[in-house]
Design a protein that fits this description.
Involved in the transposition of the insertion sequence. By secondary structure, the protein is α/β, with parallel strands linked by helices. It contains 10 helices and 7 strands. The protein has a 5-stranded mixed sheet, sandwiched between helices. Helix 4 packs across helix 5 and helix 6 packs parallel to helix 7. The longest helix is centred in the N-terminal third of the chain and has 34 residues.
Length: about 300
């Protein structure tokens, strides 16, 4: 700061009323050599500052594009995918200095209302939310979205091998046909294997005759967690927490507005652009995970 003050107050043609560099160095208790070293290093410092500003702007752009949801790990991964050779600690420092923060998810209330008379299927997942191949293990759940027109319900089906939402349905109710429609979409686009496990909670929608008939027709195996245990269906619960945190809307104006936001989040953002750390492929999107997994599983020519 003292060197900057000397540089601003020194006598020059444009500042004839300024002071002698020698005098100011003596008064401020610094050396003339230190001042001239500061001048020599200033262009490099200014270039570093310019580069930091450019990087910070790029970080902010990625952060905004993620609905301000991405934290340090995903922003670092996004920068590397764009060709940046970047250190995570540098990203963390810049985000901290510029006040850029990811979203913290809020807890959600469960919709599970079990039918006490319905038979319960065994838990074939056992809190192991992984799968070696797409179309072999699925998780399903229902959540609600508040709108000025009343509750809006969303049912999803997620492939555990890719974490892609392969099936979903929305309606102003959460009767059995909601989860049936979501599973039909999953069967139509998810290339489900014979004997694929479809896991859910014990809600009456999932123990309904309509849903179980569809499971039988598709050749799937039903699995259920325990009542009141969110950990038994944690992968599905996690997605809903993510959706509500990243969309950011508290109350929608209408069912149509909620539908449009959810559709865009699932089809445009989550499945195709949101990065998730995969144990083999690194930070990739769910659709990329499906492609990479399929390629790895394809028999050699």
């Amino acid at each position: 700061m003292r060197y900057a003050f000397i540089d601003a107050e020194k006598a020059t043609e444009s500042n004839p009323g300024g002071h002698s560099v020698t005098l100011m160095c003596k008064v401020l208790g610094v050396s003339r050599s230190g001042y001239y070293a500061y001048l020599a290093a200033r262009p490099a410092a200014e270039e570093r500052a310019r580069q930091e500003d450019e990087l910070a702007a790029e970080i902010r752009q990625i952060h905004t594009g993620s609905r301000r949801a991405y934290g340090v790990p995903r922003i670092t991964a996004a920068l590397r995918r764009k060709g940046r050779r970047i250190n995570r600690k540098r990203v963390e420092r810049l985000m901290r200095e510029r006040g850029i923060r990811g979203i913290t998810r809020r807890k959600r209330r469960s919709l599970t209302r079990p039918d006490k008379k319905a038979a319960v299927s065994p838990d074939l997942i056992g809190r192991d939310f992984t799968a070696a191949e797409p179309g072999t293990r699925l998780v399903s759940d229902i959540t609600y979205l508040p709108t000025l027109a009343g509750w809006w319900y969303l049912a999803t089906v997620i492939d555990l091998a890719t974490r892609e939402v392969i099936g979903y349905a929305m309606a102003d109710h959460h009767r059995a046909e909601l989860v049936v429609d979501a599973l039909k979409m999953a069967a139509g686009r998810g290339a489900l294997e014979e004997g694929c496990i479809t896991h859910s909670d014990r809600g009456s929608e999932y123990t309904s005759r309509e849903y179980r008939t569809l499971i039988k027709e598709l050749g799937l195996r039903q699995s259920m967690g325990r009542t009141g245990s969110c950990y038994d269906n944690a992968a599905a619960e996690s997605f809903f927490g993510l959706l509500k945190a990243e969309i950011g809307t508290t109350v929608w104006e209408s069912h149509e507005a909620a539908r449009a936001d959810v559709f865009r989040f699932i089809e445009v953002e989550y499945n195709r652009t949101r990065l998730r750390k995969h144990p083999v492929y690194g930070y990739v999107t769910p659709v990329e995970t499906r492609t990479l997994t399929t390629q790895d599983l394809a028999p050699a020519a």
